[in-house]
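User: Let's play a game. I give you a shape written as tokens, and you guess the letters that built it. Ready? Here's round one.
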């Protein structure tokens, strides 16, 4: 079976429980992101969820980048 999806294999077939209290999906600059809430209130990007190839060329959407909560759409 082949799945064509922007989701990671671990999202479809989870092997371990994530900390769902800190992880959430948001819309940021027109792109869907999976982020983790940091202790200082900022958000760290875990994964970009997009089918648009141009979104992956945007360096501000790379996993590990920190975004401020007041910049969220």
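Assistant: Ready! My guess for every position:
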């Amino acid at each position: 079976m082949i799945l064509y999806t922007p989701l990671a294999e671990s999202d479809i077939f989870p092997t371990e429980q994530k900390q769902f209290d800190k992880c959430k999906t948001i819309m940021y600059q027109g792109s869907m992101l999976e982020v983790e809430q940091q202790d200082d209130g900022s958000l760290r990007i875990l994964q970009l969820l997009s089918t648009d190839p141009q979104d992956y060329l945007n360096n501000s959407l790379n996993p590990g980048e920190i975004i401020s909560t007041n910049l969220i759409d």
